[in-house]
Amino acid sequence: MQLLNDEAYMRLALQMAQSALGQTGINPVVGCVLVKEGRIVGMGAHLKRGQGHAEVLALQMAGEEAKGSTAYVTLEPCSHYGKTPPCSDRLVEAGVTRVVVAGTDPNPQVAGSGIAKLRAHGVDVTVGLLEMEASAMNEAFNKYIVTRMPFVTLKTASTLDGRIASKTGDSKWITSEASRAYVHTLRHRHQGIMVGVDTVIADDPQLSARGDVPAVQPVRIVADSQLRIPLGARVLQEQDRQPTILLASAQAPAERRAALEARGIAVLTCGDGPQVDLTLAMRQLGEREIGSILLEGGGRLNGAMLERRLIDKLVLMFAPKIIGGGHLAPGSFNFAGFEKMADAIALDRVEVEQFGPDISITGYPIYT
Ligand code: AOF
Ligand code: ZN
């Protein structure tokens, strides 16, 4: 790569940000490159919530050389006192004369004021370089910071005829190893991983991120209105390493709740109906600072979440197989559905990728 122009430096900053995806919690991923007279003098990425912001780390590296440099930042430098002091002040103090920003920070505490502060101090600020790329990698942050509701990615792995198991319940494996490796990357990139209790009863999954390399483990979330989960289920083990949250109704038996809580498992009461109030559940998870969730089924929970418009993104993985099985073979989306094709939930910004023999379709539901 030839590091000669603004775009190339911003791409480098974006690459650094992208590589920290999954490790910043509810915070965005941010990269910063400082350039002076054609030389990179500092680089930084925000790596963990509560720790240094990208700009501060790059400034530390540059030391005296920051004076008179240009900063390339993938997100507007902050202007507020959060867990760390404002980056815009730090850039000004260090004598940075030009700042190139990909996009503004949607955080209501920032929202343009970081840029305004820089300009007020005579810094030359350019906004909008590679904005789409920068914003896309923070799609979860962008939603959470304004709504306090988690960004939910629904992932399915089905046959071409949309089945997630055969008529006998066999589901190992539908998709290839390459697809499953990608799912572990998705798990690493979300703060929570969620399934329905029927999936736990049927498959006894571990719900951890297991790739070739160690990964950040998402909190495990199980929608279980009546607390039917078996105490021996694998998702309930190793709570010190990877905590589990159960979403239940107030109707769930009190003794079940007590037994689970005694094992250190958090049980959230989500309404008093026969089924978990999923909107309330998402709100409560948001309050617990879970800003992104990977939903992995089964069909009924997928359908219910989609019906309630709680899904932000879909990653649908299809193995090139047909299993059939009529009503007996479960599908990826089990809900009442619509009468007219015109009312179907359509996907926007559709992208197709291949993992080994499998096809993945990514898109964003349009709720009308
Ligand atoms: C930046 N550079 O590298 C990041 C920013 O709690 P704090 O102090 O970490 O602040 C978090 C907020 O700061 C976050 O919501 C977002 O608005 C901004 N993140 N800003 O200038 C960075 N990570
Ligand atoms: Zn900052």
Automatic annotation (TrEMBL):
Binding site for Zn(2+): H53, C78, C87
GO molecular function: 5-amino-6-(5-phosphoribosylamino)uracil reductase activity; diaminohydroxyphosphoribosylaminopyrimidine deaminase activity; NADP binding; zinc ion binding
Binding site residues for NADP(+): A157, W173, T199, S225, G298, G299, R300, L301, N302, G303, A304
PROSITE patterns, per the entry: CYT_DCMP_DEAMINASES_1, CYT_DCMP_DEAMINASES_2
Binding site for substrate: S171, R187, D203, L207, R210, E296
Catalyses which reaction(s): 2,5-diamino-6-hydroxy-4-(5-phosphoribosylamino)-pyrimidine + H2O + H(+) = 5-amino-6-(5-phospho-D-ribosylamino)uracil + NH4(+); 5-amino-6-(5-phospho-D-ribitylamino)uracil + NADP(+) = 5-amino-6-(5-phospho-D-ribosylamino)uracil + NADPH + H(+)
This protein's name: Riboflavin biosynthesis protein RibD
Organism (species): Paenibacillus sedimenti
